[in-house]
Design goal:
CATH topology of the largest domain: MetI-like fold
Strand content: under 5%
Structural class: mainly alpha
Order of helices and strands: HHHHHHHHHHHHHHHHHH
Helix content: over 70%
CATH class of the largest domain: Mainly Alpha
CATH superfamily of the largest domain: MetI-like
Length: 325
């Protein structure tokens, strides 16, 4: 198992390097520091002196890859690539345009994002699988038919409708929970209840239908017919055999959620005023703070690769044949 994990981690290194190079190219080659200065200053006829001052304040006045004015190691270290790109591998993200330390902001905002993302992830996973199993158990009946109809209806509604409708109905009319805001400690629950419920309900349709399709595909396989031929009840076949053998596609779908657990939901955090990483990213995009955007892109890539490695490891726990292969 250890060799398998190490091999997967080694596979992830070139992927992360490639993502870093692409990010560097997009931010500093395609979109040069001069372009970033003009976008940030917001002046149509900005002077070269203002551009040079903006770049100097943020460390963008150095050469991109090779500093011909230096000798030895500083020839490569005293560059934008080393300070702004390679430094991210040590999780040194530098400072934002307003002077705040990006790494400190990420640490401070990670917990609000996790506070809303973890309940949505855990409760949603149980709810989606449970409803999908219920529809499969009563397949070709009115329960299955109306379940699919409800799922399609939920899928057809924009997530903004759930957010705005929930805030208006539950927060403004019924006054059950605050419309927006965030607090620490025991008061956190009343601020997170509404976004968690909306997060679960908003994804109910698509995820339930997806799990239902997976379970129906498993129901038509040979081992299911063999289990039925042995006289096993349908509930035991569904929950013991079908659910277990459907874990690999389920785990594959779960991996895309891993970065969101840390990075937060951009729309949800913005509408509910939660000071998480999602709203932090939105604020950075609006203020054209390129240092924050770069840091969040790199962090998202790292978390996604970690999710892929964890998924590969979980595959071996569900199906040991994968490790042998």
């Amino acid at each position: 198992m250890l060799r398998y994990i190490v091999r997967r981690l080694l596979y992830a290194i070139p992927i992360l390097i490639g993502v870093n190079l692409i990010t560097f190219t997009l931010f500093f080659v395609v979109n040069t520091p001069d372009d970033m200065a003009r976008m940030h200053l917001g002046v149509k006829y900005v002077t070269p002196a203002a551009i040079d001052k903006w770049k100097q304040e943020r460390g963008y006045d150095k050469p991109l890859l090779i500093n011909n004015e230096e000798n030895g190691l500083p020839k490569f270290t005293n560059t934008i690539f080393f300070e702004k790109s390679l430094a991210m591998f040590a999780f040194e993200f530098g400072r934002a345009d307003d002077g705040r330390d990006i790494a400190y902001e990420i640490k401070a905002r990670m917990m609000p994002s996790l506070a809303i993302a973890l309940p949505v992830f855990i409760l949603g996973l149980f709810a989606y699988i449970a409803f999908a199993l219920l529809m499969v158990f009563f397949r070709a009946t009115y329960i299955d038919f109306w379940g699919v109809v409800i799922c399609v209806a939920l899928m057809s509604i924009s997530s903004l409708f759930y957010i705005i409708g929930g805030q208006f109905l539950i927060g403004k009319l019924w006054h059950l929970v605050p419309i927006s805001g965030y607090a620490s400690g025991l008061d956190m629950g009343k601020f997170l209840l509404l976004p968690v419920v909306i997060g679960v309900v908003g994804s109910m349709g698509a995820n339930t239908r997806w799990y239902r399709t997976i379970f129906l595909e498993e129901m038509g396989k040979e081992y299911v017919r063999t289990a039925r031929a042995k006289g096993l009840p349908e509930s035991l076949v569904l929950f013991k055999h079908v659910l277990k053998n459907a874990m690999i596609p389920i785990l594959t779908g779960v991996v895309v959620i891993v970065p969101l657990l840390f990075l937060g939901s951009l729309i949800t955090e913005s509408f509910f005023g939660i000071p998480g990483l999602g709203s932090y990213t939105i604020e950075a995009i609006q203020s054209q703070d390129f240092a924050i955007v770069r840091a969040m892109v790199f962090l998202g890539s790292v978390l996604y690769i970690i999710g892929l490695v964890l998924t590969d490891v979980s595959y071996t726990l569900v199906d040991p044949r994968i490790r042998l292969e």
